[in-house]
Amino acid sequence: KLQVPDNPVIPFIEGDGIGRDITGPSQKVVDAAVVKAYGKSRKITWKEVLAGDKAFRKTGNYLPDETINAFKEYLVGIKGPLQTPVGEGIRSLNVALRQSLDLFVCLRPVRWFKGVPSPIRYPSLVDMHIFRENTEDIYAGIEYMAGELDAQKLCDFLVKEMGVDKIRFPESSSFGIKPVSKEGSERLIRAAIKYAIQRGLPSVTLVHKGNIMKFTEGAFKNWGYDLAESDFAEKTFTWRQFEKIKTEKGRLDAESALENAQKEGKVIIKDVITDAFLQESLLKPYDHSVIATMNLNGDYISDQLAAMVGGIGISPGANINFMNGYAIFEATHGTAPDIAGSGKANPSSLILSAVMMLEYMGWYEAAEHVYDAMEHVFAKRKVTSDLYAQMEGARLLTTSAFADEIIKNIH
Ligand code: ATP
Ligand code: MG
Q1: How many Å apart are CA 304 and CA 315, to the nearest integer?
Q2: Could you tell me the pTM of the whole model?
Q3: According to the annotation, is 319 in a ligand binding site?
Q4: pLDDT digits (tens, 9 = 90+) for 142-192
Q5: pLDDT digit string, tens, across residues 330-373
Q6: Closest-CA residue to 51 (of 11, 107, 8)
Q7: I need a labelling partner for 58 at 20 to 30 A (CA). Which of 167, 204, 316, 368 fits?
Q8: For the chain, how big is the Rg over CA atoms in Å?
Q9: Best mutation site among 13, 333, 398 for ligand 1, i.e. most ligand atoms within 8 A of its Cβ?
Q10: What angle do helix axes 348-360 and 364-379 make, rounded to 10 degrees?
Q11: Nearest Cα to 19, choosing from 306, 405, 302, 349?
Q12: Atom of ligand 1 minimally distant from the CA of 344
């Protein structure tokens, strides 16, 4: 359980591009909700820490140590989007920050607000929580370019030492390595199962392509089932157990075991192949609750599910190390240079990330105030330009007017 003082210091990175437009208004909303919920007894002190363009201009460094240290010292922080400097030998500042704090879970809740345009028929039934593994998989950045020495060496090694058929590696082969560890998979899946148990959610779906990639994605699934059955035996029931009962005793027994588990409030642990999941989540989103998946799958899934509930302008996220508590809450979109400074940016993504932060701190009353106020504003069809064009009879507000409207609706 997280220990949060009544007057916490929260470090924040303003961010590049629309970060400058959405950060201030988001903080105003949070402050108003905290006052409403707790009067003068609690208050956040926002402490700006530097990263990105602004950091480079002031310190000559895109990601100063002081910034990383502040997030460590205060445990919980928030950030706007950062642009990755071109040609500085940095893959991504966002990734660098996640790595330096070992924030192994990318958590993205997916919920719909009444009135927000959605391409699916029953968006009100959507309540999903994505746990995306943040440190491993093909995204680890271990790649070798065709024609270069390392790629050739790897090719020779695979052919000579591993006995892989040479015909499969023409001269022009590039390679990417996909590391997936038991520890890495377990800590992600453990966090997802605990989250489902704590919130009384019905299921955890392990999403994978283990039918094709047996020893990486398939192992992820198997480690997940092993973990549930060993460490959470009393609180979960797995599809693997279902299958076992079915083989040994028949379908009826298996079905009644599943029903009993559901009645007892156990979390059902199941698995679905990624491509099937992408279909199912559109056609029957109510079949899925918590989703635990690996890095690349999680990337695709996050954007698809975000589109179901209004797009990246209103999709929140957080990067969390559930073992030591470090957490950085952030909007899931980029810096959107095309609309920066124009008043068109939707601050909802960052405001909802701040709501997640308040919940993480245990400040549920304040979180609810923001959430309820946003529901009112969307129901009145007052929106920023990203949603305006798709909504009949909507009223267009600028970034800061939209935030002010939320504050007005905090009752
Ligand atoms: P980056 O290089 O930092 O990822 P990008 O150019 O890829 O930036 P994104 O931020 O990923 O831009 O956004 C993609 C599209 O979505 C852009 O057209 C942008 O204007 C729009 N967009 C992103 N965030 C928001 C937001 N909060 N409100 C409104 N529109 C947004
Ligand atoms: Mg982008």
Answers
A1: 11
A2: 0.94
A3: no
A4: 899 988 889 988 888 988 888 888 778 888 889 999 999 999 999 999 999
A5: 998 999 999 999 999 999 999 999 999 999 999 999 999 999 99
A6: 11
A7: 316
A8: 23
A9: 333
A10: 150
A11: 349
A12: 29
